[in-house]
Design goal:
By secondary structure, this protein is an alpha+beta fold. The two termini are about 40 Å apart.
């Protein structure tokens, strides 16, 4: 019986690790999406510059129209490629978010386990961590205030949460202990998203 409980805890810790990995991948995809948007803006700026150059040189009207048409087609194709990349990245991010949100970390067994241990509900545990942003091990910058965005209660001892201060963001694994009708939190590890 003791061995089954350890295997079950290991499964939930592994599930927590999977969530951490998925959240890191989501952050990476969002960064890639930002880079695609920057490239798209650069191309649009470049198109405007080319149009200005074509209208200011001494070429004939037909030559200008031909150059402009060729450049417009080339840039339009590049924009289409970037928009396809952007759409692919958006789909990947949405799919990853869906996976994170649909992971059943705290199943009925775990809820019953909390009740047996006379722990508070998952919602109360979650709200308790929201109220303790001071345990984040990464300092806020530029006058920001660190706060938790999302909290995932993993089991009777651990929670994973994301945080930010408006300038930097990250995530961490936190341990909680419920004693004397009070939840006490400690930090296991924090990491800043790149």
């Amino acid at each position: 019986m003791k061995r089954e409980i350890n295997i079950s805890k290991l499964g939930y810790v592994m599930c927590g690790i999977i969530i951490v990995i998925l959240l890191l991948v989501i952050q990476q995809k969002n960064t890639q999406l930002g880079e695609v948007n920057n490239q798209l803006n650069t191309l649009q700026t470049h198109t405007s510059e080319i149009n200005m150059q074509l209208t200011s040189d001494g070429a004939s009207k037909d030559d200008k129209i031909s150059k402009l048409t060729n450049n417009e087609i080339r840039l339009s194709n590049q924009i289409d490629q970037l928009q396809l990349s952007e759409n692919d990245l958006k789909i990947q991010v949405e799919t990853l978010i869906l996976h994170v949100n649909t992971l059943t970390i705290f199943d009925k067994y775990r809820v019953n386990s909390l009740e047996r241990l006379q722990y508070p509900t998952v919602a109360i545990i979650t709200m308790s961590l929201y109220e303790h942003p001071e345990i984040v091990g990464i300092s806020a910058v530029l006058g920001g205030t660190m706060y938790f965005n999302r909290v995932y209660v993993l089991d009777e001892q651990y929670a994973y949460a994301t945080f930010d201060d408006g300038h930097i963001d990250g995530g961490g694994l936190y341990r909680y202990v419920y004693e004397n009708e009070e939840i006490k939190w400690s930090r296991i590890l924090d990491h800043q998203f790149e």
